[in-house]
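task queued by scheduler; priority normal; single chain, no ligands, no partner chains; default sampling; output format set to structure tokens
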Amino acid sequence: MPTDTPKQGPAKTGSPMDVAERLSADVILSLQLNHCAATERLIIIGASTGGTEAIKDLLIEMPANCPGILVTQHMPHTFTRAFATRLDSICKISVCEAVGGMHVLPGHAYIAPGNAHLLLARRDGHYVCELNDGPPVNRHRPSVDVLFRSAANCAGHNAIGVILTGMGKDGARGLLEMKQAGAYTLAQDEASCVVYGMPKEAIALGGASEIIALKEMVQHIRSYLNSSGSTADPQ
């Protein structure tokens, strides 16, 4: 695969941060939109600045029989386990920091560790969490684009993609890829965002099926699952 030429300019030209900023999800996995024979529904969430509270507001409304949920939140690795533990203590669903090889189960949410990319994979007929310690994508590890692309690849139309408040553009391309694979995709609206960066970029690319206020997200997910005949609906 051809590599980008470092930017020309003053003193910091070609610094590790410049290189990291250029990397896309291609350095972790390729886009392969295959037909998905599975029927299990999944909810895939990405967020950054302001996302911890937004994620809490979503997960606390999810009932115990909701579809399995994978979450990438830009956060240092020293905080992700505590974040998952706190959510687990206040939510009806079970919440944990993701471990490679974990089966993705209804009524469970899996938070990306702060030092690894979280991917959705399918093994032996089951969805599982996969971790990857490859380079940062969009200057982030974990990267929302990586998680979203993995969901586009192996879940397709069975997934619901949600991009929440955050700075930058991580997740914008991945949400579009999920939509192109048949997923229902939601972007948080500007008024309810702490930082309207990531949703704005996703909307500009055409990746959002709908633009929704945070407080209305779960209701829209519920309506979509009910209308599509899911066996694990947020009732």
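post-processing summary
- Confidence is low (pLDDT under 50) at residues 1-20, 231-235.
- Residues 223 and 229 are 10 Å apart (CA to CA).
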